[in-house]
Design a protein that fits this description.
By secondary structure, the protein is an alpha/beta fold. The chain has 13 helices and ten strands. The protein has helices at about 50-65, 85-90, 110-120, 130-140, 145-160, 175-185, 210-225, 240-250, 280, 320-325, 325-335, 340-345, 355-360; strands at about 20-25, 70-75, 95-100, 120-125, 160-170, 190-195, 230-235, 290-295, 300, 310-315. α2 (about 85-90) runs parallel beside α3.
């Protein structure tokens, strides 16, 4: 019997061979100064960013690996003059490209229609608050909220599915109900909730505690049963554990769907959504370096944009070789190497904790998830294990949800 961590992911992908999602930072150039920014973006492009020809070689490699989703991010992709040509080239190679532009004057109606014409399959924009006051303060630019709303409306007009990203921290955790009410009016297809990893401009004081994570999970779970769009989480892998626990509890109480999540748990792949639009994403078992990779503007490859452990450069080594053979990627895909309670957890095959957050707070990418309060059934705490971020480690009082 093969080890559970080698079982192909839902949809047939073997994460030891092929990622489900690859993200390319097409440029570091951006005109915003967002508080959480991983990239520490600058107005001027880096002189050593990948050339057009090098970018096409990268796209060829993504096509050869048959990566299902390839995201152009930044910085701001629209700051790159050849971005439309590169999207068109990818589309010709049957690579499905999503783009995450910044809400600047470059994001015009004309630009959105050009993205559609070039072959973009999804547009992802950031909206961190239901009001301009919340969002613009976070993004560091007055008018960013209004421009984002306008861009969503233009994308709907162009027929591009819209995904909204919200970075969740102390500044907006109280605003989730209002955000969802706004999203329903805007006809989005997915809400991607990013849980803060304190790197780049992301600050430790903004990080929610383990208890607050659970409160937010409860709110997301509640919302997922009544909104008309999908909800997924990023860098909150333990939401999958929360989702399974509550779906199974609903089944026991006779409240769940007859095919509720849990039927496929032994293989790490729950079989239905249990009336929750989050389940399809929650069961993919993607984690940093496990079904996921990040390519920087200069071609460096990392397990995640939030996990800055260099694994190689595509100018020197083929992308497939880096993903499949680099020690950090192989290590992160082996759940037997997880430490602390993550290593002992019965949910580690579908969760595994945020490797990026573990690294950011402890310096060890295999350490236990710092913001998870769940106690595994067979876990015996050791004195030298990293602590869970709780009330005493996190600034301020619990958010009210």
């Amino acid at each position: 019997m093969q080890p559970m961590h080698n079982i192909p992911a839902r949809g047939g992908l073997n994460f030891d061979e092929t990622p489900f999602l690859a993200i390319w930072e097409v440029t570091q150039s951006c005109d915003l100064a967002c508080k959480h920014c991983r990239a520490a973006a600058q107005p001027i492009a880096h002189p050593d960013q990948l050339t057009t020809d090098e970018a096409k070689v990268l796209i060829d490699q993504i096509a050869a690996m048959r990566v299902p989703i390839f995201v152009f991010t930044g910085g701001d992709p629209l700051k790159r003059p050849d971005v439309f040509d590169l999207i068109r080239y990818a589309a010709e190679k049957n690579v499905k490209v999503a783009v995450t532009p910044s809400a600047t004057p470059l994001l015009t109606r004309e630009a959105i229609f050009k993205l559609k014409e070039a072959g973009v399959v999804r547009l992802a924009v950031s909206l961190d608050g239901s009001t301009p006051e919340i969002h613009d303060a976070f993004r560091g630019l007055s008018g960013a909220w209004a421009r984002t709303i306008e861009a969503i409306q233009w994308a709907n007009e162009a027929g591009i599915p819209i995904q909204v990203h919200s970075t969740l921290s102390r500044h907006n955790a109280h605003d989730l109900d209002n955000l969802c009410a706004l999203f329903e009016k805007l006809a989005i297809v997915m809400w991607n909730v990013f849980f803060l990893v304190p790197v780049g401009r992301g600050q430790l004081d903004d990080l929610l505690s383990g208890e607050e994570f659970e409160q937010v999970f409860g709110k997301i779970y509640e919302l997922s049963h009544r909104v008309n769009f999908q909800i997924k989480t990023t860098e909150a892998m333990h939401y999958r554990r929360y989702l399974l626990q509550h779906n199974l509890e609903e089944r026991r109480m006779g409240m769940g769907h007859p095919h509720a999540a849990g039927a496929g748990y032994e293989a790490g792949t729950p079989t239905a959504d249990a009336q929750s639009r989050t389940a399809g994403w929650a069961t993919r078992r993607v984690n940093d370096g496990k079904g996921f990779l990040f390519i920087s503007h200069v071609g460096n490859v990392y397990p995640s944009g939030f996990l800055p452990i260099h694994a190689g450069n595509i100018r020197e080594t083929p992308l497939a070789d880096i993903y499949r053979n680099a020690p950090i990627f192989k290590c992160l895909r082996d759940t037997d190497q997880l430490e602390g309670k993550c290593g002992a957890c019965e949910y580690k095959e579908i969760c595994g904790g945020s490797r990026a957050r573990a690294y950011a707070l402890t310096g060890d990418p295999l350490a236990q998830e710092p913001c998870c309060i769940y106690q595994p059934k067979n876990w015996i705490p050791q004195q030298d294990e990293s602590p869970v971020v709780g009330h005493s480690e996190a600034a301020g009082s619990l958010v009210t949800l």
